[in-house]
Fold each of these.
Amino acid sequence: MDMKQYLEVFIEESKEHLQACNENLLALEKNPADLLLVSEIFRSAHTLKGMSATMGYEDIASLTHQMENVLDAIRSGNLPVTAGLLDVVFSAVDHLEEMVQSIEAGGDGKRDVSETVYHLKMIEKGEEIKADSEIAASLSVLAKPSKGLMYDDFEMTVIRQSREQGFNAYEVTVELREDCLLKAARVYMIFDVLEKAGEIVKAEPSVDQLEDEQFDNEFMVTLITVEQAAELEMKLLKVAEVNKVNVAEISERISGLEDAQEIEEAPISQIELVEVKPSSEVSESAAEPTSSGKLVNSTKTIRVNIERLDSLMNLFEELVIDRGRLESISNDLNNQALNETVEHMSRISGDLQSIILNMRMVQVETVFNRFPRMVRQLARDLKKQIRLEIVGADTELDRTVIDEIGDPLVHLLRNSIDHGIEAPDIRKANGKSEEGTIYLRAYHSGNHVFIEIQDDGAGIGKAKVLQKALASRIVTEKTAAELEDKQIYELIMASGFSTADRISDISGRGVGLDVVKTTIESLGGMIEIDSVEGEGSTFSIQLPLTLSIMAVMLIKIHNEKFAIPLSSIIVTAIVKKEDVLKAHNEMVIDYRGRIVPLLFLEDLFGVPGIPTEKDSYSVIIVRKGEKLAGLVVDSFIGQQEVVLKSLGNYLTNVFAISGATILGDGQVALIVDCNALIK
Amino acid sequence: MPTLETDLKVIVFQLIEKEYAIPVTHVRSIEKVQTITRVPNTPPYIKGVINLRGIVTPIIDLRIYFGFEEAPYSDLARLIIISAGDNEVGLIVDSANDVIDIPADSIEPPPEIVGGIETNYISGVAKIDDRLLMIIELQNILSAK
């Protein structure tokens, strides 16, 4: 059967299940007694196993199978949830994620997961795996046997059974001389000797590879025989061009595995039970939402190509244009039935518009949800205690922005974890709680979305930054003296800058923050850094809601309409001519005690028309940061939500125009960029 | 008989009595002149932007672009929407009403005598019967002045 058509679905669904695993594991870590979570993870793993086995990804299937065994033991109360156990399960999920990624990238999804499988088996057996440092120790111990051969269930069974019948199981390592010319021939001769002596269970590299001479000088063969090790060694050394032979009993190493194997049999039968009676599992899962309410937020979705949404939006805009025409025709005809129908259609198309616009919006949660896992892992690697607080994960952003924002945020979080939050002992010495906190906040403000990463760590050392910047010639002595605090902080985003004393895996190579800055700027956003030494730093990213709904004030100057983003507007006012003052040859007004310069859009935009003398001005007071300006227009039309469109590639950098929008009557109105008007 | 490959299918348009040709492969559509929204602080030949089925498209007045005298648009005036690469712009011409095949062997390099600013934007001249068609080099127009 051709599986290609299912591959995409498989990858997407696998990702969803893995994400669910991750989330539930994190929740379980906080609340180890919650067996419902274990059931959730079990179900995800189980589905994943079924899918991957169908698709022929056996490594995923075997790993999830082991995970299931462990989870099932927890579920049935045979195993306690410990930090060590969670670590292993987390690493299993990591492996699964990487395998799925490899499949997505067109790979075969194969991966050496024997170590994790071995760990899972150990856990299942009941051996506690210690967290943190001890796990590292046990890892290094385990690293040695991994040099030997790994056996699958079948091979293990063969080895075990033959030993029960009094045979010897050996791992034979044969090293050929480096100048060996006919390696394949020697391999053949060695296999000949071995086959006479007993039965070959496994060869590493495989027999095919050995025959094709696809190995260096050494290979391993697992043999079951009645002969003794010394005897065998003698026989093998008689083969020409053999440099070294090592015949090792595998009983010691296997014994550990063997026990695991014996214990494994029980869970397998349990698994089979689960599989045999799926109906009971279904009823279980059906019963759970009512009891726990945990599944409520698992919404059903379909995937739609974003291009289709774009063309849907364009088609809809044409509809809006026709709607406008229809409205004016019905006004002219003044037929009641027609009027009512057109009105109804207008309402429906209004609803339709908001749905279409919202379809392109995605919650930042889709980006944020992978961070808790990442922070947990990094904190462990660095032996720091870090709590990640996420606020506003339901904030919506345009899909195009969401796709780009993930990597910069990862960089910033890593930066906060590595450089921001101090080690627990230092924190304690400084009178802080040992656990550092990183806040990840997202919120809307005007036409922008803000994402902030705030930590309560060491803050940015200004002196150190300056010193490094001078050393790496990012600034000169002269300019350094004139820099303000914020400008100094921004130096850390300069290319080739790193203040880390030592380079770690996590960050510190001086690439990263400059990439973050470039990425965010390419999205039309801004990044600001604020920091208090000893108290922490805040990285604040401002992002536009490009291609999304933008609230504007429509204004008229002679016969031309312009749109001014509401986010820039503070207030609109009618100012009497006598209230306009002159200062330094500039027209200014007094707005709540502040002197605000007036800008005549008519002149700035060279709007054709005959200037008329008026008694009062219609003024829109806009701001850029702390600065204000009063834009003088002819009249206000009103507030409207519009779709921001670019002027295209041909017209770039038009002064004070940030884009265009299509109004209900099909006309194009230009959107004024207030930031460019205020200097 | 010329093969299809050597034929150049073009849209013929008029600009002050002269005939020009644009390869049909670059032409997206031909539209009637509609309301154009002026874009301030742009060169005079950019008349502004229009809403072309939901896409904001810049409009160039080819008369001004070629250095001729500006004239009010008649009912015959058309917008030829052309695209090359990422750019899509509309050109205002006096009229556009013909699609013809130019045999490759009738295209000659532009003579120096033609003169005028538009010479920079002519890639060749074709003689069909008693008509003289100047073939527009789009790339030069689309890479802004």
Amino acid sequence: MRGSSLLKNLLRKLMYGTWGAAPSDVYKKIHYRRIWISSVFITGVVAIAPLVFMTVVNIHQYHKTIKEEAMHPTSRLVSSNKRALEHSLIERKNALQFIANEKSTEQLADTQILRSIIDNLNSTFEHFVDLTFIDEQGNVINYVGPARYESKLRGVNYSQAGWFQEVRDEGAHISDVFPGFRETPHFVIAVRHRDPHGDMHVLRATLDMELLTSKIPSFSKDDGTDAFIINEKGVLQTASRFGRKALEKAPVPVPPKMAATEVLEKTDDSGRAYVLGYAYIEDTPFIFIMTRPLPELMQSWLSLRGTLLGFLAGSIVVILLLTTAVSSVLVGRIRDADMHHEMALHKVEYTSKMASIGRLAAGVAHEINNPLAIINEKAGLLHDFVDMTPEFPKRDKSLKLIESIIASVERGSAITHRLLGFARHIDVKIQPIDLPALINEVLGFLEKEAVFRNIEVQTFIADGVPSIMSDRGQLQQVFLNLINNAFEALKKDGRVGILIENKDPDLVVVTISDNGPGIPEEDLGHIFEPFFTTKTEGTGLGLAITYGIVRKLRGEIEVESQEGRGTSFHVVLPRIRGD
Amino acid sequence: MPELRVLLVDDEEELVGTLAERLSLRGYDVTYLLDGAEAVRRAAQEPFDVLVLDVMMPGMNGLEVLKEIKRTRPEMPVILLTGRGSEQDSQTGLELGAFDYIMKPVKIDRLIEIMLKAVGSND
């Protein structure tokens, strides 16, 4: 809970740290947040997208290269082994074919000659177990080989066997490995023999499985590579290195028939990826198969991919942090510039408004002053007449009436005087200012308001407060704003204290205090910001302009507030406005 | 006490006429004029004891009249009548040699007090 709020604060700081919006600034906050979001999004996407694209392309390319590199040796091994195997099979088939062509039926039917043939074959090629000579009807005519098999062959008729028909029609046959009635699995190569009379015989050789096994390459112990031969029905023709024996079901499915060597990427039942290399051996039912576990080959690839992805993730984090920070700073600057601009506009507007009001007030005051002077003189003359005529009817009453007229003229005159005093010096003009008198003048404007609101205003002036060099109109505005604010804070019934003192020979401090509700601590830092307001119909400019004027007059303004106790504004003014 | 001869100059006849009448009622010999240039001419010819002069006048204004009078009749004291809000002009007037200034609307007793002081200081 605590941790998450901490994180949230950190994020907020990262986002809005440089442009913490004032509460009254909700519209603008949303506006700038939108700019911020699009800035982060666009720069982020522009920076990250090519990076992601490049990484994906790289990974893909590396993967392809590494896979090819992993598969190529497999392909080569499969090819060379297939060739060797094919060669040894064709070699034997050709030898057998040569013998069938070379020898006559009589010779092949002669056990003595056939025995010398198999001895010769074995001395050259090895792995011949026996030779059988069979007539066109499928009857065994002659047999040489281990004596223990001979009895089993006597009287066997092959005329219905598939291989026999194939030899008769096609000329040659190489069989699968099969157990037959011999002890070890074996396979046969059979070829056709024709004698000059056109009679057909078949010469059949049995070869032991060793011939195939000897062609399987061996691998080091920790190499997971396996190589074996299967037939087209998916039966192992040689033992698999990892547990399965010949004639058991092959550990891999039968791959599709292809003329050339193929390498495929496959997944086994337990989900492990492996490389399957295979080659069909022509004119035989054999398929040479080689499997290599992929993870071992791809080890280097995985670590490379890890590095790439790590780099990508790191870069994305750095880019996001940077774009976030840069966007925050930029948006903050834009907002500050906008605010200054708007503030300046408002100030210009306000100043020109004040100037117009000032000119209007001055004009009105002048115009009214003349008739007032005339009324004053006429009433004065009337007063003289009545005064000098003892028998004037209702003399005393008349004198009182005339004096009342004169007093009213004086009041009117005081008002025009105040208007003129306020209207004067719209432009900055430095002159000696008697601060107590100036503040009294300002209070004159607010007298009625104070009475109406039942606010008690007390002014304390320390001894020896000197007059200062400053601008009269601007100072009037400052104190009018501050005292008016104090009145507004109090609403009704309260006290406003104004203290004028000079703690330092070069500085005069005017403190305006109220015993109102005070300003909440979180708002204290914002009150001089433009557009900050807690009033429903405030512009949020009063204190900002006040602050601006005080700064322009080379002064300082500070605020102190305690909730429930009241607020004090200290305006520190230099005795001489240094330029 | 010899009768004091006062020259009153203001472009507003309603005002200056009434003020002149009030001063006459109090025993002063008052002449009033509505024009600055006329005032300069008359002041040169007649022995007025004191000049009460409005600052804001069309044509030749109070300050110009004052300058001229100070050239032709330097011994004659001049009291300026000013409207509210032209203290700056009054200040200039004092620098030009006016005896004092008084704000409109005028309190007659205050005016007489200043006139007597001006004439007295002149003796």
